[in-house]
Amino acid sequence: MGETLARIADEAYGRVVRPLMFLTRPDTAHALTIRALSLLDSLPAVARALQPRFDASEALITGGVQLPGPVMVAAGLVKGHGFDDENRAVEAAHHANIIPGWRTIPMLCGPVEIGSFTRFPRIGNPPPVLWRDVATRSTQNRIGLRNPGARAASVFLSTNRPAGPFGLSIATTPGESDPVKQSQHVSESIGLFLERGVVPAWFTINLSCPNTEDDPQSNQTEQLARQVSEAAVAAAGDVPVWVKIGPDLSDPQYQTLVDTFDATGVKAVVATNTLAAPVAQTQLSGGFGGGRLFERALAVVGRLRALRERREYKFDIIGCGGVMDGRSLRSYTDAGAKAVQVWSALVYRGPFAPTRIGREAMVDTGGEQIV
């Protein structure tokens, strides 16, 4: 019954929901999506009725984590509302759904990386912050790490536990240049979750965030990467630590990061975050995901694989960028990724994209063409 309803809902998204959403501005469509997720979170029976079946043959272990399939939802969708004050965020966490999608997305999509969360809350950038490039099935955003902060998120998730395996993404603090303070913020954030019994399947440290006014490359130096990785691994204890990096570094920079991650015990590298680029007809800059990131991120996965094999390092690689169908998933696994993360696929293919993409890859077919 669940599979039948899921197929009907999936068809409805492609024929009705997506065309209607694409008639609105991306910011408006995203706001409507967040409202819908908040409503569905309060109606778990609906999501349970639509919950797709995961094929046991797709299960795998990557980055020290057992996953039901090779596709998970990337950080950035289930991240919560922004706040400008930690006390107000914590107060809201006790009586409001400050992280819409916490229940619904894991049920419909499978494993999800929740966040990114910074140590202190951020209100994010004023709109517009989202754009679409339908021709390339891309999205571009400059949301600016809007989130309720680690303390409020830990309070909320301590009483609202997602189903199945989930990760928590912890971002470094934009504008903070002191590696010692960055390391402290990361370890404190991890500690806040663990102290409240919020134990994810993995933590991802987001070293690259081009969607703020911060320079993302400055957060990927050897010194900061080493100190932050060491602090994260120590704070996480038995929970595997992954690190997310950018798509626009040089080979020597990637080599330095690879050496650092191996030395500090990082279990997986997520490649990559979005690609910073000017927003058309504006003075703004935002990060591209989806089709326009695909070739760049895929190349980084191949470079990381070569660097890893040269030194016989053990960390796994998680692909992220433009995974839209079975063929693009296969491209990533052929390049060296053990699993992938998606975000733009949810926009263009709907909430059942992760399971559909995994199944398409199993039978080596492509996916739906968006026109």
Strand content: 15-25%
Number of strands: 14
Side by side, the strands of the main sheet go 3-14-13-10-9-8-7-4
Q: Rg from C-alpha positions?
A: 19 Å
Poorly predicted sequence stretches spanning 5 or more consecutive residues: 365-371
The DSSP helix count reads: 13
H/E series: HHHEEEHHEEEHEHEHEHEEEHEHEHH
Distance between the termini: 31 Å
The best one-word shape is globular
Q: Helix/strand-derived class?
A: alpha/beta
Q: What kind of oligomer do you see?
A: single chain
Roughly what is the average pLDDT, rounded to an integer? 92
Approximate helicity band: 40-55%
Largest sheet: 8 strands, parallel
Q: Can you characterise this structure?
A:
Helix 4 runs parallel beside helix 6 (150-157), helix 7 runs parallel beside helix 8 and helix 9 (251-264) packs across helix 10 (291-311). An eight-stranded parallel beta sheet has the order 3-14-13-10-9-8-7-4. Residues 365-371 have low confidence and may be disordered. It has 371 residues and is of the alpha/beta class. It contains 13 helices and 14 strands.
